[in-house]
Design brief:
The complex is a heterodimer of chains A (572) and B (607).
Chain A: H1 2-16, H2 29-32, E1 35-38, E2 41-44, H3 45-57, E3 61-64, E4 67-70, H4 71-80, E5 90-93, H5 97-103, E6 111-113, H6 114-118, H7 121-136, H8 144-163, E7 169-171, E8 181-182, H9 183-189, H10 192-211, H11 214-231, H12 238-250, H13 252-269, H14 275-288, H15 302-329, H16 337-359, H17 363-381, H18 400-432, H19 439-470, H20 479-499, H21 505-530, H22 544-571
Antiparallel strand pairs in A: 1-2, 3-4, 5-6, 7-8
Helix pairs in contact in A: 3-4, 3-8, 7-8, 9-10, 10-11, 12-15, 13-15, 13-17, 15-16, 16-17, 16-18, 17-18, 18-19, 18-21, 18-22, 19-20, 19-21, 20-21, 21-22
Chain B: H1 7-22, H2 24-32, H3 35-58, H4 61-69, H5 72-91, H6 100-122, E1 124-131, E2 136-149, E3 156-160, H7 163-166, E4 174-177, E5 183-202, E6 211-218, E7 223-230, E8 238-241, E9 245-250, E10 257-268, E11 274-277, E12 285-288, E13 294-298, E14 304-308, H8 309-312, E15 317-319, E16 322-330, E17 333-336, E18 339-342, E19 351-362, E20 372-378, E21 384-391, E22 394-402, E23 406-408, E24 415-422, E25 425-433, E26 448-457, E27 462-463, E28 467-470, E29 474-479, E30 482-505, E31 519-526, E32 532-537, E33 543-545, H9 549-554, E34 558-565, E35 572-579, H10 583-602
Parallel strand pairs in B: 9-20
Antiparallel strand pairs in B: 1-2, 1-35, 2-3, 2-30, 4-5, 5-25, 5-26, 6-7, 6-24, 8-9, 10-11, 10-19, 12-13, 13-14, 15-16, 16-19, 17-18, 19-22, 20-21, 21-22, 23-24, 26-27, 26-28, 29-30, 30-31, 31-32, 33-34, 34-35
The chains are: A mainly alpha (572), B alpha+beta (607).
Chain lengths: 572, 607
């Protein structure tokens, strides 16, 4: 928890701190928007640098020689000054405790130098075993030590590619969709004039960088770009480069969670939304008309207005960020864990605002905000678990029609259930604080559950229809399919039990919390715990302690409220 | 949630109570359609599915399917669910407008489940592996079957049997009576990985060809391959090593003559070496230490040695038939105006230029081919072979290999061992389970499942010799003079058309080897009419036969979706085949469920 808080503080710091430059010159925009081909797509140099450094070290800036250095500077230094002793600098992430223990590496240290790892015989043995296991069965997923060792091996290989310059594939291909080449590689096949031109431009670039001459640096870069233009005049549209750089620099989802968090704080401290007042408000509302809970804006409370303003701006940032990502990737933003977490946060706030505009309950936003803030903070601070990099999709997912209607629907149902979880929490916390239960709140909870059930049923069935086309069968009890069905059955059980009178509002609340654990299983656990099945592209590892901790907290909360409720019932 | 009860609702309740009291039929309907039963069904089905997913990850998919998803009790439970769904709609009789969503949803689920049952009963799922230019008319289903030919009437008896689900053992063997006889087939073991191992058998026939038995082995890849080669014909004398190399058996080795080659290498600490060669590369790998003082030379055979750089400067270093000489050295290498220079005398970026001369023996070979090969001929003593190891037109190594001796092939860490040889031999095959069950997961593409069985006559207390029955082959089992022929494997299903792979393409993500799609062009040919139709199958876009609108709409068609590919052979693709007459019910049911839920929640509620 302490770690998480420090990471959050660090995250805040990144937003406000002026970044100090280790390099002698300021990174020119011309370098940031230099297109480069890596990992099956073209991206601006800035994004390439951040993704590369994140892949190496799990972060986008490092302390080098006592100075905080951002990814672009560091990666550029590695590229243009290969003679520096980079191999002894601590760049490579080894985060898995048991692995460090076995390799005899200091447990508190996170980053290690290439040299230190290269000579670690334990690591070499493990990497050897991992590659043997992978060769023996390419479809087998590595686990535990071997997987972590293989990951470290990938980082080392990436470092080697940076060191020998082969990663910097900046020379466009003559063929559309062809392989780009690194400068040295291209020079071998180029004409003598071209080669000489490229060598001189590169030398200028190096000189400018090492000697702190911006003019030389930009001149070298311009010369190179002129050279590349002869091969392909515009390999990437300019607006797309600009948009991606803007998206990368602005951190829209970070602003979103900060604003949501502020909205949450204002809502909590807003006298208008204090527990007692709202209770009264809702009670009176119930007497007059169940659907007109009194518009909060009418209460003229400035704090309340500020809260709404913050939530609205946060939502704006989130929508803008999602739109930017859609434009950059050209596909709906639900193709990996990182995107799903952000999308679910978006959906939760979206449904809350939608309900608020119809029902004016006040509780929807209060329920949605913690869910959205926690999800977005995780996405912002845990890049190793939730990787924000944009990578090509596996072939079966390259169908925007199905991706949109199946995955978006399913994940929106998760969002509705997350909102019901948030509302259930508000109710439970009120109960813990010994407030009387409110029938209208249970009604609201029921309505969010309805949205979730409709979307989950639709999404699951649409998944079957898609599978009928892509895999050639409607339903085959794949673990992911099965868990979507189990989740649906559990929520149906919850709603039917309410109709049957088996449980009332309180039971529904407890049920909404417990049933959400099955959403967690369907969305995350299937990939992590079961680890088999066809939906292997959604598989990610890591973050298990977070999820386990969450499940534990939920169970404690449920047990505590049930105990209190029982005590109250026996007394009253 | 509770609203005021209107007089109509009151009357309705009274009616329902009345009919429950007076009619047994309605009593049963209300019992079967009760919410309590629905709750029990929802909870148990959810629990069973959850257990099944864990069973699948602990055991395997077949077990989860056999024990739960496809088990009779689960089917029965789903039938109860259908009855419950149907009965609950009856309890709402007489229906009113506001029941529409409720009824549509519940009937939608019944329709969907009906579609699933129709699909399971009359449809089938399978796959087909197509090779370019080889039309097929049979599809491999997912059902394991056992075929037994009874000795009494020579009829073929077919029964579904899956050894990986039945798990037969000596303690719990599977006993199957053979129709029309007193015999029993007793299955007492099973394996997922059986393999046919070749062996050489001395032949009495003097016309039988000479043969070799080789063992190819890689420690690194955990792979082993036993290869028999005979001089019977050119196909039997050649073995294609995964498309990467060729093994050939000759009566006498082809003649050869040596030539010499020249190569220049620019080796540096910080970038990949620049190698210039004529005809063919030497495949010698030179590396330079960080301080520029030590040169490490690795030969193509994998032996490596280090030398002080100073000792190699301008001095010829002979290595077998190869000579290496270091011509130039730059401590701080930099290309200035396209010319190599040194920026300083500090070894910041050491680099060197080495010249390599080597000789190799060239033999006649079709131009352009540079795949490695191994050629062998039997010596007169029949206990050793002469071999030539080379690549493209040149011989890189030659010598003799004695019986049971091994030699490195120079292809990764593959080694070759001579197991047996003879002048007149026959090749026999014996079925054996693979030793290292865990490691052999996918390295033996030829491995097949199977079981261990023997014949027994309970009355006479007789027992025949036990044998492994490998899937995909007919195995004769003996008891005294009686023979029962047994075949095991996935059931093949004939279809009324043929399918042929015309073209297969794998586009890649730009600049990588990662596939971005798989595109197979196939040709369907109606076996009755002879009419052909071409289809394109790619990811998310299946092709189907007959492929008309109504066939697609109702599911009375064979649908082919991309399933697997073989990175080693792009002339091959595996397609998933589905024939699903329940499809119409499935999608109509699906539509009804979604529509019904939406109606129930959001239609006609507002007053």
């Amino acid at each position: 928890m302490k770690k998480l808080i420090s990471q959050i503080l660090a995250g805040l710091f990144f937003v406000t701190a002026i970044q100090s430059h280790a390099s002698l010159i300021k990174i020119p925009a011309a370098l940031e928007e230099l297109p480069i081909q890596e990992n099956g797509r073209r991206k601006p140099y800035l994004v390439f640098a951040e993704e590369t450094l994140r892949a190496l070290s799990g972060r986008t800036s490092l302390i080098v020689a006592g100075k905080k250095t951002c990814a672009t500077e560091l990666i550029t230094s590695l590229w243009l000054e290969p003679q520096q002793p980079w191999a002894t600098e601590t760049f490579l992430l080894v985060s898995y405790g048991p692995l460090k223990k076995i390799l005899g590496l200091p447990l508190e240290q996170k980053l290690f130098s290439y040299e230190a790892l290269r000579h670690n015989s334990g690591l070499i043995t493990l990497m050897d075993q991992a590659s043997k296991a992978r060769r023996a069965d390419p479809s087998h997923r590595l686990e535990g030590l071997l997987k972590e060792a293989a990951d470290v091996g990938m980082r080392m290989a990436l470092f080697e590619e940076i060191q020998d310059g082969s990663l910097f594939r900046i020379v466009p291909s003559e063929k559309a969709g062809g392989r780009w080449r690194a400068l040295a590689e291209w020079e071998q096949a180029a004409s003598p004039q071209e080669r000489e031109g490229a060598q001189q431009a590169f030398l200028l670039l190096q000189q400018g960088w090492t000697q702190g001459s911006s003019i030389d640096f930009i001149q070298g870069l311009t010369d190179l770009k002129t050279l590349f233009q002869k091969i392909d005049p515009q390999p990437v549209p300019h607006w797309k480069l600009q948009l991606e750089i803007f998206y990368q620099k602005i951190h829209p989802f970070r602003w979103a969670w900060i604003l949501y968090a502020l909205a949450g704080i204002f809502l909590l401290f807003s006298p208008n939304l204090g527990q007692k007042d709202r209770k009264k408000k809702i009670d009176t509302a119930k007497q007059s008309h169940p659907c007109a809970g009194g518009n909060p804006a009418n209460h003229n409370q400035s704090l309340h207005r500020v809260a709404w303003f913050c939530a609205g701006s946060g939502f704006f940032f989130q929508v803008a960020g999602l739109l930017a990502r859609i434009l950059i990737t050209g596909r709906p933003p639900v193709t990996n864990m990182y995107e799903v977490v952000i999308w679910v946060a978006f959906g939760t706030v979206f449904f809350a605002l939608l309900f608020e505009s119809f029902l004016h309950g006040g509780i929807f936003l209060l329920g949605a905000i913690p869910v959205a803030v926690i999800s977005l903070i995780l996405a912002d601070t845990q890049p190793v678990i939730l990787n924000p990099a944009i990578n090509p999709l596996m072939p079966v997912l390259r169908d925007n029609f199905w991706l949109t209607i199946h995955v978006l629907t399913i994940t929106l149902s998760y969002a509705a259930f997350a909102l019901s979880l948030g509302i259930a929490h508000v109710i439970l916390i009120r109960l813990l604080l010994r407030h009387q239960p409110l029938p209208i709140l249970y009604n609201y909870l029921y309505r969010t559950l309805q949205v979730g059930v409709l979307l989950l049923a639709t999404g699951t069935i649409l998944g079957g229809v898609w599978a009928n086309y892509s895999w050639g069968r409607f339903w085959d009890w794949d673990p992911k399919e099965t868990w979507a069905l189990i989740t649906l059955l559990i929520y149906l059980f919850l709603l039917h039990g309410r109709i049957a009178g088996r449980w009332g509002g309180f039971g529904l609340t407890i049920g909404a919390v417990l049933a959400f654990l099955s959403v967690l299983m369907a969305c995350y656990g299937v990939n992590f715990v079961l680890g088999t099945g066809l939906h292997s592209y959604g598989f990610s590892t890591g973050g298990f302690p977070f999820v386990l901790g969450f499940v534990g907290l939920e169970l404690v909360l449920v047990a505590a409220t049930i105990a209190i409720k029982k005590k109250e019932d026996s007394q009253g | 949630m509770k609203t005021e009860i209107t007089p109509q609702q009151k009357a309705r309740r009274a009616l329902i109570n009345e009919r429950k009291k007076n009619s047994l039929f309605w009593q049963v309907v209300h019992l079967l359609g009760s919410l309590q039963l629905a709750l029990i069904l929802l909870a148990t089905i959810a629990l069973a599915c959850a257990i099944a997913t864990f069973a699948e990850s602990h055991f395997d998919t077949a077990v989860a399917h056999a024990a739960i998803y496809k088990a009779p009790w689960f089917m029965a439970w789903l039938t109860v669910l259908c009855i419950n769904l149907f009965a609950v709609t009856l309890t709402r009789w007489p229906w009113k407008k506001n029941h529409a969503g409720f009824i549509i949803t519940h009937y939608g689920i019944i329709t969907l489940l009906l579609g699933a049952i129709i699909g399971m009963t009359w449809g089938f799922e399978g796959n087909v592996t197509l090779h370019r230019g080889m039309p097929l008319t049979k599809i491999t289903t997912r059902k394991s079957v056992l075929q037994i030919e009874s000795p009494s009437d020579t009829f073929l008896y077919l029964l579904p049997y899956d050894a990986s689900v039945a798990h037969p053992s000596t303690k719990h063997p599977t006993r199957l009576s053979i129709p029309g006889t007193e015999l029993q087939l007793i299955i007492d073991d099973w394996s997922k990985h059986l393999e046919q191992q070749p062996f050489l058998q001395e032949s009495n026939d003097l016309k039988a060809p000479a043969a070799l038995l080789l063992r190819l082995h890689s420690t690194l890849l955990h792979q082993e391959q036993i290869v028999p080669l005979t001089l019977a014909n050119s196909a039997a004398a050649t073995f294609d090593f995964f498309g990467l190399a060729t093994l050939q058996f000759f009566s006498t080795l082809p003649a050869s003559h040596p030539t010499s080659h020249h190569e220049s290498q620019l080796v540096a600490m910080h970038f990949a070496p620049v190698i210039v060669f004529q005809d063919q590369p030497s495949e010698i790998n030179i590396t330079l230490s960080k301080d520029g003082n030590l040169v490490t030379i690795t030969t193509p055979e994998g032996t490596s040695a280090s030398y002080p750089r100073a000792a190699l400067m301008g001095q010829k270093l002979p290595l077998g038939t190869t000579t290496i000489i270091v011509k130039e050295y730059w401590p701080d290498f930099k290309l200035v105006d396209g010319k190599p220079t040194t920026l300083s005398q500090q070894p910041k970026n050491p680099a060197l230029r080495a010249e390599i001369t080597f000789s190799s023996t060239t033999i006649e070979q079709p131009a352009g081919k540079t795949t490695p090969w191994l050629r062998m001929a039997l010596n007169q003593d029949f206990k050793s072979i002469q071999y030539q190891l080379g690549r493209g037109p040149s011989i890189q190594k030659s010598g003799a290999l004695a019986m049971n001796a091994s030699m490195p092939l120079g292809w990764a860490d593959w080694e070759c061992t001579l197991l047996a040889a003879g002048p007149h031999e026959e090749i026999g095959y014996s079925v054996v389970p693979l030793q290292e069950k865990t490691e052999a997961k996918s390295d033996h593409s030829s491995a097949s499942p199977g079981f261990h069985a023997y014949l027994a006559d309970q009355e006479h207390h007789q027992q025949g010799p036990a044998q492994w029955v490998i899937s995909g082959a007919v195995t004769p089992l003996m008891l005294e003079h009686q023979m029962v022929r047994v075949a095991y494997g996935l059931e093949l299903k004939s279809v009324p058309f043929s399918i042929e792979l015309l073209n297969f393409e794998v586009p890649r993500d730009e600049g990588t080897e990662t596939p971005s799609d798989f595109c197979a062009t196939v040709r369907f040919k109606n076996l009755k009419t002879g009419a052909t139709r071409d289809g394109l199958i790619h990811m998310n876009h299946p092709a189907s036969f007959p492929g008309t609108f109504w066939a697609n709409f109702t599911g009375f068609n064979y649908k082919f979706s991309q399933a697997e590919w073989n990175p080693r052979d792009l002339e091959e693709t595996t397609l998933q085949v589905l024939y699903d007459p329940g499809w119409l019910f499935k999608w109509v049911g699906s539509l009804a469920i979604c529509l019904g839920i939406a109606m129930m929640f959001y239609w006609g509620k507002k007053k």
